[in-house]
Fold each of these.
Amino acid sequence: MTRVSTLQSTEIRIPREVVDQALHYLKRQHVNYADVRFESLLHESLVVERQHVQSISLSHSAGLGIRVLLKGSWGFVCTPHLTITAIRSAASRALAIAKASASINRQPVRLAPLEPAKARYRSPWAIDPFEVPLAKKLDYLLWANATLMGPEAIQRATSHMDFFKRVKFFCSTEGARIEQHLLESGAGLEVVAQQGDEVQTRSYPNSHHGALAQRGYEYVKQLDLVGGAKRIQQEALQLLRADAPKAAVTTLILDPTQVVMQLHESCGHPIELDRVLGQELSYAGGSFLTPDRLGHFRYGSEHVNIVADATIAGGIGSFAYDDEGVPAQRVDIVRRGQFVGYLTSRESAARLGLAASGGAMRAEGWDALPLIRMTNVNLEPGEATLDELLQDVKHGYLLSTNKSWSIDDRRVNFQFTTELGWEITNGTLGAVVKNPLYTGMTPKFWGRCTGVSNKASWQLWGVPNCAKGEPMQLMHVGHGAPYARFDGVQIAPAA
């Protein structure tokens, strides 16, 4: 089945006049603070399955979100109606919500100081994917899809592309006035092989939506979908014949695709300061990284250096300013194994007594309230090559490409499975293994990190489906990762 959605026009016009009118009205109401955030999102999605075009969609959404802080309490209202009358009404309702909240609020909000910015930013890209002919993009997907098919054991083959174009305009009563134009491009493949009751899946270049970067169509071309299709088809067939790993406590080397998920779940979420302070618990719980541990807790071994970097080129967690108008920053999270920093907002930074926000406040869209979200949470590279990480491993496994995950609501106890692995014997990679599962406890696991590979192996990946909030918001975040070795980890075959 093919689903097609078209737009009459994709022209994006920033409604500066109505934004200014809303701010002028709110200033006259003597609010403590207010911001008005316009956002427009253009999204194109193409999916090919079994050499047939499964879906083509092009969607556009635009609107305004208004936050008001009055007597230490927030009010938020959003609207897609970009007229002066509608915006004035939305601003009045946001003000009324703040007044009502103030009557029962026992912990008034304070904001960390901020120098208001006036700026304009455009993320770098060479080829605008929305100007690439649709037929050309579909031809490429069909070519890659045909390469995945062939042997009888191949049951399903999927290839896809996604493109996102955002225009954001942020203004505040403090005087901020920020315009940002952000473009993301991505693609991926998945093949499912079956023989009897045995079913195996391989993804390229990564699982869970492939690869996405803050770049143009040139990034899709660099992914080499056809070459990747040839590789993962053969790996899927290999997995049908492979043995599962034996249960053991052993050495694991995680490749960058798997380190990404480990970073996301066991580091990225527990450093969100709203979770830590109990402001965001209902969706996925809190954090073991409590304020008393900041600067005093050993998160991992001396090999572990983790940063949250919203400034890195190409990351889908990158921007010039967050949705509070705070400049993008590089923030140390773990330095030589020591826990030293959080992801913060202006409100949470003030509650913890920090000098300023780290610039991690973002909303999924114009109709969502900004939350503390990951930017690009990266494991910094070390000095070793992959061969050096392998060379003294008597027995262990190299694991690649996340398949499933589970972690408790404090982000301590976890288990992960990967799509495939390779047995390591005396420093040499051997047979492919299927359904590997490993378990651990976050600080103990990272404390057993005995090596991290160098910059040459470091890769930046995008995760476009990070869920948080109620109502749930899906955020685009990034993770940069090298290979990482861990000793004394429990591995077993997944059921």
Amino acid sequence: MIKNTINKFLHDSLPNLRIAVIGDLMVDRYVFGDVSRISPEAPVPVNRVKQMKEVLGGAANVAANLANLDVHVYIGGVAGKDTHGDLLQDLLDSDGIDNSGVVISRDRSTITKMRILGDRQQMMRLDFETVRDVEQQEEEELISWLDSLCQKGLDGIVISDYGKGVCTDSVLEKIFNLANCYKIPTIVDPKGSQWEKYNGATYITPNVKELSERVGYSITNEDDKIVTAAKEVLATNNIQYIIATRSEKGISIIARDGRIWHNPATQQDVFDVSGAGDTVVATMICSIAANLSMRTALHIANGAAGIVVSKVGTYPIHRQELIDLWMSLQEGKYVEKSVYSWEEMKSIVQQWQDRGDIVVFTNGCFDILHRGHITYLQEAAQLGDCLIIGLNSNDSVRRLKGETRPLVDEEDRACLLSALGCVDGVVLFDEDTPSQLLEIIRPNILVKGGDYKVDDVVGREFVDSVQILSFKEGYSTTNVVNKIANLVKEYKL
């Protein structure tokens, strides 16, 4: 199931995707050295240079990430007719990126950022740039180039806005019109607080600081604060999804229709966050273009970002690194515990989902386990890779069924359910519904039985999908209880 989906994505889908990147093109130059003394000329450290490296930056780094994922990449932007522009073209060529959309301007310099590092710590950054809006002729060349690509067939468009003049209101409007006409998903890495120019985008990827700038107040990096701010933006902008990158808190996605996904960061030693956002953009657009689920896309993006931040400097992710990460996750072992606390279950669900497994959840009292229950649970288990049961506690059952219930204690009911081969975990809840539990553990599929309608299912906003299964006729705990009561009345028991 999902394992095959991810394997197919990594091995087959990525090399066949066609993605266009438009935005502010840059060269990132790194000067590496070591610092052991202070200059006698001024109170500044002396960095003894050992190595220099030039890599693609800005929108070009997104393209580099895509190229190293073995995607067919087409890049559009503006560069100067200068030595840095020549270097930019050489770097694009070396990564196999189609640079037919790069417009050469004699009136601007190629944006270059020089970072000075001493003992792996960034000491200073020097920026060489000309900041002005693209001219009408340059805009026409860019849009004509993109239109031609759309006609031939694109799977996604990335807009990387650094506020240097390529992503003007006019350019963006024409990009979104083309994308919507050809039904191509777009993803925007935004700049500034005025997001009206991004109206029409499918996805936008702010970090916490950028989201704060947009709403006009400081946001703490907490789930509820991020969600509240994102919903405020979605209510006033024509954007379908906000993908909030949250540093050590991972990534959150908030959809216009109210759905929410949170995914914590992959635990890695962090050496440099340069370019990590570009990696998220690249992996997300690929996952979206390949029609992966949002949760699966999140896992892939977080895993890729975890690899990138462990490197020094702007570092494009490689497809083989994702394959290696996926294989290492597959080598892990499932935990063997059957009955969990809420926090334990949350952690285990995350482990399963990181492996690419679909986690199915259902809930009930399961008071006097019978064949109808077993058949229902077996069918539910077939919808995914792992089945979790949310079990009503004694107090919860008593409120729902009356003072005489449950007939079987919660610990005994949990033990019986855990012993079933189709069940991977049981977790108790005291509430009348499992809504709070679902918000914590966030499985992929919520299964209900009977005559439920999907729109009426409590907790549906915390899962990817809801499935309704029919109960088997002739089997119910109430029937069993009534049969026993009648036998007692007839002195047959």
Amino acid sequence: MKISDFIGEATEYDKKEKLEERRPKSWLKSVSAFANGAGGLLIFGVNDKGELLGLEDSKNVSEKISEIIKTKMDPIPQVIMEINKEEGKEFLILRVPSGIETPYYYIGDGNRTAYIRVGNQSIPAGNIDLKQLVLRGSDKTYDSLTSQFKYKDFAFTKLRSVYKKRAGKDLEESDFLSFGLTDAYGMLSNAGALLADDSPIRHSRLFCTRWHGLDKASGVLEAIDDKEFSGSLVTLLQSGEEFVKNNSKKRWKKTANGRLEMPEYPERAVLECIVNALIHRDYLDMGSEVHIDMYDDRLEIYSPGGMYDGSIVQNLDTDRVPSRRRNPIIADIFNRINYMERRGSGFKKIKSDYRKEVNYKENLEPKFYSDSTSFWVTLFNLNYDVPIDNDKEVAIDSKKVAIDDGKVAIDSKKVAIDEIYTKCTNAGLSNIMIDRITAFYEFVGDDLIFGRKDIAEYFKFSYSNAGKVIVSMKKAHIISTVVGKGKGKYRFNM
């Protein structure tokens, strides 16, 4: 393979002309950042311009790298080294998969420093970043932690009402414990506190503004409507939906069978975006809130916290982004009340809702952007600068039929994912492990045969960590051994 091939397949990478033994921090900070994030590559023997300089003794360099990592990193991350040759010159690829024992520290100069990736730089992790890394490394999430608030001191009228209406049954007292909203001693988890009618987590708020024009211009004086909401996450969701509806207009045109409605923003896409913003936000960031900003031509939703796995969404194929939940208990509750699905289909669903609309064009495709601390989604106004033509008839029946045909397959897969979730939960698996298993099922389905290597490649895991996933699948009784395809081959038995 050529150097360009390696660079092309990596989301994050750094280039080094040579191994700097006396300045290990110059490259170990990248190792730390990659292991603490979504993984990445270090290429030794290449300058910043991408020109191949080569290494004199690649084998010796690889041995020194291994030794330095063992003495200067804690814990020691999983790394893979490959020696390659191009144009008669050797270069070394150091692969650093995303780690599971975060945070990974560089030890030097009398300090322990964990690094994260911001853009193409590796920088020291801040307090919030460290807290997230510690939670991830301990297989815990913010919403699962026990709060200082007692269940008996709070009401859950909104949650109970919506649960009854959308799930079709009462939310029992025992459900609060089994769903992870309380502990055995009657204390609320952070998830429970966020879902209480009068949520005591004050930084869980929603700011909504309808601006006049295409930008914020002169500030709040240019705002047509401006509201702040607090309380249960269910209240925030419903309030955000209502704000968008109240500040949007709906057109219609005649068709052969009646009339066709043409919303500025597809309602389901708006719902999905607000749900994602509330569920996946970083609640450790107490200095920021979820924002909905509406302009004449677009709607922008901001949420504190980047992608949970450290990846950059604009660098990904959003049709194939696996589920990575920062707050799995909250996500589970919203799934139970049918506001979201457990599988990672949100991005694809939002784009699909847009493509069904009459005024959709490729330049109006929803946009997603993230960095290490923030996430934005932009929904474009489908009716902006579109002339009104009520006499034009539009044929949409065939499109509706195609949509309905695909619904059966979607529903059957959702049933299988729900069954996997139930079996994994009953087997006592952690929320993070359950999310990994459901994401992998979403990727391979019922028919494909897989082994430890396939899991390792999908998650960028070591073989040993991939083996732990298989052990968990066996424990939950959701896979069967496939005979005749080699040793260690399996298939989901859903």
